Structure formats: structure tokens, C-alpha cells
Amino acid sequence: MIELYGADYSVYVRSARLALLEKGVAHELRPIDAFASGGPPASYLELQPFGKIPALTHDDFTLYETAAILRYVDEAFDGPPLQPSAPRARARMTQFLSILDNYAYKTLVWDIYVERVSKTREGAPADEVKIASALGPARTIIGALEAIAADGPFLLGDQLTLTDCHAAPMLALFEKADEGALLLRSAPRLSAWLQTFRDRNSFKQSAPAGH
């Protein structure tokens, strides 16, 4: 029994769900709101002591940290491989994942998408200073990802990998902000990939409720 704990709005939870869906692994999403008043329940902290999402349980095995979950999903279950076998392609995948975690997540999702889209949708004003300050780093991030993206249907070329599963949730949110849509238009490989990836069943099935 595979149980994934987290909220469907989380890009990291969606990344893990995309990998599970692409592998064809049946699983249950157990709702955990990391932003709930008072934090996540004590029962969840027994699985993930830092209170972040997602966490995964597989029978008597518990795992947290998205990068670890992604690799486990690929290596523990049958289905199409989601990691390249060639050393250079595998290194490129790791590079993509590192850029997304270390640079893209905060800048593209929190500093731009949340400010421009989430807060204003709820009636709060966007922090224009924060957005303006994030545009330079965002331009660097998109340029770096565009430079290492392959010419192919997927970010590493012909094979769908964990790179696609991890990048799609972040870039899909980023594109919802006007600033994000504008920057992505300057990255033709990323833009073409994102538009194609949106049509995959896994992307549709993992969409947050109400989206």
C-alpha cells in the first residue's frame, strides 16, 4: 500500500504524484496541510519530523524529502524508467533537480506566483517590491534551465524523467503570473515542453482540486 501525505496544492506533492502516475503505481493521497493553524498534526510529525510535505509510506517503510521519494518511486516499482542510464544524462537530471530546489522554488513560486496570483486572488495586495526584486533572479533561472534543456519532447530529450515530474508543477504555477508568462516566452524549449506536458494524463490527474 502506497500512501503519499501532503496537500494537492504543493508543487512537491504534485511532483511525487506525477512520478507515481507515470510509473503506473496505485497510491492514496492523505491530506496534510502544512500551513494549518498550529502546524501539521503530531501524527504526521512522527513520519516527517520537520513538518514538510510530502512524506511517503510503503508498507513498513517511511520516506520523506522529495528527491528521495522520486528516486525511490522510480527504482522500487515496475514501469517505464524515469532516470537516464547514461552518466551525462543522469548528471543533467541531477543538475535540473538541484536548480529547481535551490533557486527556482522560492523565486518562481513564492516570490512571484504567490505574490502576483495567490495573494491577489484572496483579496490581498501583491508585494510589488518583492516581485520586482525576484525578476532578475527569475530571468537567470529561466535562462539556465533553457540552456540545459534538450531539443525533444521532454527536458532531457526523448525520455520522460524525474526532471519533467519535478519541473512541471513549478513552471506551470510560474506561468500563471504575468511576469512568468512573459519570461517563459523568451525560453522556447521550456515553453514548448510545458505546453506539451500539460496534455499528459498524469498532469491532468494530479491537478489541485478546483483547478
TrEMBL record:
Domain GST C-terminal residue range list: 86-211
Family annotation (InterPro entries): Glutathione-S-Trfase_C-like, Glutathione-S-Trfase_C_sf, Glutathione_S-Trfase, Glutathione_S-Trfase_N, GST_Omega/HSP26, Thioredoxin-like_sf
Pfam families, A to Z: GST_C_2, GST_N_3
MF terms (GO), sorted A to Z: transferase activity
Keywords: Transferase
Positions of the GST N-terminal domain: 1-81
Any one GO cellular component localisation term in the record: cytoplasm
PANTHER family recorded: GLUTATHIONE S-TRANSFERASE OMEGA (PTHR43968:SF6), PTHR43968
Protein name: Glutathione S-transferase III
Organism, as annotated: Roseibium aggregatum (strain ATCC 25650 / DSM 13394 / JCM 20685 / NBRC 16684 / NCIMB 2208 / IAM 12614 / B1) (Stappia aggregata)
